[in-house]
Prior knowledge:
Layout: H1 36-45, H2 49-58, E1 69-74, E2 77-83, E3 88-93, H3 101-112, E4 116-121, H4 122-127, H5 129-141, E5 148-149, E6 154-156
Parallel strand pairs: 3-4
Antiparallel strand pairs: 1-2, 2-3, 4-6, 5-6
Amino acid sequence: MRAFPLPPEGGEVAPRSGDGVGEGGGETRSRRKTGTTARARGLRQNDNQAEALLWLELKRRKLGGYKFTRQFPVGLYFADFACREQWLVVEIDGSQHAGSVHDIQRDAFMNTQGFSIVRFWNHDVIRKRGEVCDIILAALTGRLASKVDAVDLQFKPSVSSEFRADRFI
């Protein structure tokens, strides 16, 4: 069995608490704001049935080889799912989101950050998961590029790609 080397005499080891704090008087090593990781983790642990089912299709590059992240922070908001390499946000909503002013503001902000947004209802993900995945794949490959505002689907293409500049990749 191989042992890890001990720190030098009188040396100090950086804390391993996972809080992102390292040497240098409490400076954070992460670019995330304090609490962002904990909030995203909490949202992932409390996802609903539709989000859990869709995650089974998106994780481990199962959908077309694209990598997705759950509860991805974009400014003050969290995207249910995001494909950073294609700048696509996927949102799964319950009936409480119908006509939500908050969602409209959120989508507008994410659009200005360079993300396209595709939005589905919970019951559509549960009942028609294959069709939902086909639509997501169409958005990823550019086959869905124009704005769609239907009862069972919303797609808002990015308004600008000037912010993209490999910020997340």
